[in-house]
Amino acid sequence: MKKIFAFLITFVLVLSVTGCVKPEEEEKGYDYDAIPDTMESSNGKYQIAFVTDIGQLKDKSFNQGTWEGIKRFASENEKSYKYYQPANGNTATDDDRYDAMKAAADAGAEIIVCAGFMQATALGKAAAEFTGVKFVFIDGWAMGLENINAVVFKEEQSGYLAGYAAVMEGYTKLGYSGGGGGTNPACQRFGYGFIQGANDAAKEKNITVNMKYSWNYGSTFSASSDLQTMLNGWYSTGTEVVFSAGGSMCQSAFAAASANDGKVIGVDVDQSGDSSTVITSATKGLREGTMYALQKFYDDKWAEISNTATNLGAESDAVGLPEATWSMTTFTLEDYQALFAKVKAGQVTIDSDPAGAETKTYSNVVLDYIQ
Known about the structure:
With about 375 residues, the chain is an alpha/beta fold.
């Protein structure tokens, strides 16, 4: 899959992204819940539309982060907005996704934000049909159409920071529970980065850490009794902290951790407010990336991002760990800031290609790949 992406994606390496700030800075003093999820447009048309990924709108992760960026931009710029969830929930088909995009276009959308790599087939069809509408493909890739911009993130960097921090904090028995069944590029990068960060920290401390690693029960990015049972088993047999990367899957991780006095690393957005079990979160600027693309469109600068994939990472302050809610003590905030500066400056080598990550051998991580 990565080889395919290499041909499809035209990366725009953004060294300084106007409007992109550290994700945790967006958390300070801004109440996204104060902006209603639904509004009544005065003319019955909705300028900005959001077509959700599978999972809930308020999944406390991927969908929610994207939606909050849309709501904030629309609110601050007096634009009408509406979200569309494809029919059939977690079993939505390409036709269901296309129907949601068509409904948005028919309702007057000037720009449609589509979240998740599963949107690709429907998005290609809709963008080719509704050429007067612009599309933003969150976690996607360039598709050869001038009315599509993709926004992607260097999740491997965020995962690396989380893995490094966990080991430096003193955890030696880790777990990774990923979404998408092992086919989601973002979750793959999160997981591979997590291994690399844990490995580098363990190497620095001259220790060996153990990590359970699995895509089981995450294909729909949803909480489930099966996932919770698996994670209960991990915690009860010694796992200390689990990185849960997959939308609403976090609810199963929170429940399992609470029942076993374990800890969780959240994903996408700062999830520390959702469970006392969260020690940190591997975040990416979903709000910021979404707002960046919307601003380009409404500033009449779409040509700058047309048919490209805007790739945001540490150099743009678009990935990282939340600083405002820092709770670790052995690995201090100052330690983290020093590490982040090295990643931002390109002084830390982090492989971005997760192909075969589950079967590789690592110097200081014993990986238990659970299929």
